[in-house]
Design a protein that fits this description.
- Strands 3-4-5-8-9-6-7 form a seven-stranded antiparallel sheet. It has a two-stranded antiparallel sheet with strand order 1-2.
- The longest helix is centred in the C-terminal third of the chain and has 54 residues.
- The chain has 239 residues and is α+β, with helices and mostly antiparallel strands.
- Helix content is 42%, strand content 25%.
- 16% of the residues are buried.
- It folds into three domains: 33 residues; 141 residues, Chitinase A, domain 3 (Roll); 35 residues.
């Protein structure tokens, strides 16, 4: 019996040490350690949406038939679902780009529309809900995408107090990417515009010089013809 009691005592001490260690770290620290992936852990799905861990790919046969092309839904580990309705043909949206989108938002539970409109924002800068910052990435200009956004990537447990979105609401968005201004594109556009202006100025100067030289050549020709005419007239007078 003393031996059993000693073993039990050692077990309780070990548990106390483990509990004490976990308490010292705190639950938020433990969660952050598990939830912060490295750059090498980030992957990209078929739609170009970044994720880490695993994702599920689902082919919607009914939607595919209606759209006349294969409709694939990516279900990410954080609950975000992405479905490309119409693929775009322009540049793909990436973090740092300024994008302009036309959207419609509905409550997943009731299907009630709570918002619609057009908005421009810098992608990946926290200017919109996390579901958009993540879900719009990879969408090509001109394309339309459906986003099934869980509360954790939308407005959370509080929703929009006094607004149309209740707490813990899952949201459905139809997002059409109207325009993508690539990061760093403005200075490049300015340089191209300046280069075009310089080239146009050089071409204009070249054409002016060409006209001037042609006029000078014509003047010399006329002067030469006049001299020849006078010389012939002199010879005729002498004869």
């Amino acid at each position: 019996m003393p031996a059993v009691a000693a073993i039990i005592g050692l077990g309780l001490v070990a548990c106390a040490v483990l509990i004490s260690t976990s308490t010292l770290q705190g639950p938020s620290v433990l969660v952050s350690k598990r939830s912060k992936p490295s750059a090498a852990d980030i992957k990209t799905g078929p739609a170009g949406v970044p994720f880490w861990g695993t994702e599920t790919i689902r082919v919607d046969k009914g939607l595919s038939k209606a759209l006349h092309h294969k409709a694939v839904t990516e279900i990410l580990r954080d609950g975000l679902e992405v479905t490309d309705i119409h693929p775009g043909k322009g540049p793909a949206a990436a973090p740092g780009d300024v994008v302009k989108v036309k959207y419609t938002g509905k409550l997943a539970k009731t299907g009630k529309q709570f918002d619609a409109g057009t908005i421009s924002f810098k992608l990946g800068e926290g200017k919109v809900i996390k579901g958009w910052d993540q879900g719009v990435q990879g969408l090509h200009q001109g394309g339309t995408r459906m986003l099934h956004v869980p509360p954790s990537l939308a407005y959370g447990a509080k929703g929009t107090p006094g607004g149309p979105i209740p707490g813990d609401a899952t949201l459905l968005f139809s997002v059409k990417l109207l325009h993508v201004k690539k990061a760093g594109g403005k200075p490049q556009a300015k340089r191209m515009q300046k280069s075009k202006k310089v080239a146009a100025a050089v071409e204009k100067r070249r054409m002016l010089m060409k006209k001037k030289m042609a006029a000078l050549a014509e003047k010399h020709k006329q002067e030469h013809m006049e001299k020849q005419h006078k010389l012939h007239a002199s010879f005729a007078h002498l004869i």
